[in-house]
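Hi R.,

Here's the chain you asked about this morning:
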Amino acid sequence: MSKTNCVNIEINEENCSCSAMDCERHGVCCECLRAHLDKDGLPDCLRTKIQNSQSFRENITRLVNDATA
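And here is the predicted structure, written out as tokens:
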């Protein structure tokens, strides 16, 4: 999904706390989550909030899989 196809891009970009403003996925949350989860990581917006919560990570993974399927 590109920024032009993301229906929530305006809201997402307003609320995105990521410092990587030049990232192609900035504001495209489903793609950002997918990219970070594929590398076994979390984006900035979640990293500080959940730390090591495995159940939260599993729920996010399931959410992203459902959204991008």
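One quick note: The chain has a mean pLDDT of 82.

Cheers,
M.
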